[in-house]
């Protein structure tokens, strides 16, 4: 690992959970090149990217990167399944005073929630191995929102892409470096609730990880989320539509939909499998059917609650990197969603 203290300004790259760089080294190498060329800062790979480490050691990479004055951001390589094991090793004092934005999604929801609880803004999206390394280039939506994170100012309107994919080519294949996954037309957003303008601090993340955090009693209460923008998205480890609705119902019974100011729900990564598990065509009709059911379920608890379902966040490409604990505006009058990017 290059010593970050001798680099004037850089982007730290860490692996809080899955060591995706070891699974697809060529894709990882391309992601590191693109970070430098696309965003203008050299990447510094921490030990967790290259070696199997304990939860404490992986947490220490985040702690260490957060101390570096010249670190522009911390990028997670990928999600995984055990970021919850890092929480007890994250240095609350260091992270509470750090100005370095953490960027990642999926299983990294656990780390975002930790930062949210200590008053920090982080950014949800942008894993290097999934969004930056594969394919012929970085999607403009992806690049534009990451640049906003690094600038620490301004806003983006979360416009609907023309097409999207839910799974790329196997990282072991040379084609993963030059070709993207199979794409389908992106469906229209579903708008519901009172047509008004709502602006608030965001909280949420990957549903599968939020279930883990709920068991650990790590979720904020409805009172703590009063007026917030709640955003939820699903990983490609499918729960089944019925179980998703059960979770939404549980949020309703707990009182969240009578506390938050608005709800965003990411487009589910539903797909139609092809000959191999690595090839899948996105299934927008199935995704939209689930979103309609989710909206109806929320409406049983608060039908006036503004909600936008099908936004490009989470487990798909292209994907907006949005503030977690920062400001999001849902404008039901003009049917726009804006994410605001501020220095952490």
From TrEMBL:
Record-annotated LD-carboxypeptidase N-terminal domain positions: 11-125
Domain LD-carboxypeptidase C-terminal: 199-330
Keyword 4Fe-4S assigned: no
Gene Ontology MF terms in the entry: carboxypeptidase activity
Matches recorded under InterPro entries: Carboxypeptidase_A_C_sf, Class_I_gatase-like, LdcA_N, Peptidase_S66_N, Peptidase_S66C, S66_fam
One Pfam family linked to the record: Peptidase_S66C
The entry's keywords: Carboxypeptidase, Hydrolase, Protease
Family named by the database record: Belongs to the peptidase S66 family.
PANTHER family tied to this protein: MURAMOYLTETRAPEPTIDE CARBOXYPEPTIDASE
Annotated protein name in UniProt: LD-carboxypeptidase
UniProt organism field: Corynebacterium yudongzhengii
């Amino acid at each position: 690992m290059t010593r970050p203290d001798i680099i004037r300004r850089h982007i730290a790259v860490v692996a809080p959970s899955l060591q995706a760089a070891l699974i697809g080294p060529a894709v990882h190498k391309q992601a590191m090149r693109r970070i430098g060329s696309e965003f203008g800062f050299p990447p510094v790979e921490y030990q967790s990217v290259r070696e199997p480490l304990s939860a404490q050691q992986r947490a220490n990479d985040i702690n260490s990167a957060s101390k570096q004055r010249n670190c522009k951001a911390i990028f997670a390589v990928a999600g995984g399944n055990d970021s919850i094991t890092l929480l007890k090793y994250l240095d609350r004092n260091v992270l509470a005073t750090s100005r370095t934005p953490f960027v990642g999604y999926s299983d990294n929801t656990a780390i975002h929630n930790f930062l949210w609880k200590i008053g920090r803004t982080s950014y949800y999206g942008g894993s290097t191995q999934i969004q930056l390394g594969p394919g012929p280039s970085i999607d403009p939506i992806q690049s534009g929102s990451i640049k906003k994170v690094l600038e620490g100012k301004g806003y983006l309107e979360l416009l609907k892409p023309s097409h999207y994919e839910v799974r790329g080519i196997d990282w072991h294949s040379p084609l993963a470096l030059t070709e993207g996954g199979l794409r389908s037309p992106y469906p229209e957003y579903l708008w519901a609730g009172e047509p008004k303008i709502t602006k608030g601090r965001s909280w949420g993340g990957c549903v599968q990880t939020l279930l883990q955090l709920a068991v650990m009693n790590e979720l904020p209460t409805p009172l703590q989320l009063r007026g917030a923008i709640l955003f939820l998205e699903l990983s490609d480890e499918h729960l089944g539509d019925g179980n998703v609705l059960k979770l939404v119902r549980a949020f309703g019974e707990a009182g969240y939909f009578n506390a938050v100011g608005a709800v965003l729900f990411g487009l589910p990564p539903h797909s139609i499998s092809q000959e191999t598990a690595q090839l899948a065509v996105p299934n927008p009709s199935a995704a939209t059917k689930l979103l309609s059911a989710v909206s109806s379920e929320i409406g049983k608890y608060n039908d006036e609650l503004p909600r936008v379902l099908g936004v490009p966040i989470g487990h798909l490409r292209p994907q907006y990197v949005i503030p977690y604990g920062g400001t999001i505006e849902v404008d039901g009058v003009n049917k726009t969603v804006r994410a605001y990017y501020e220095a952490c």
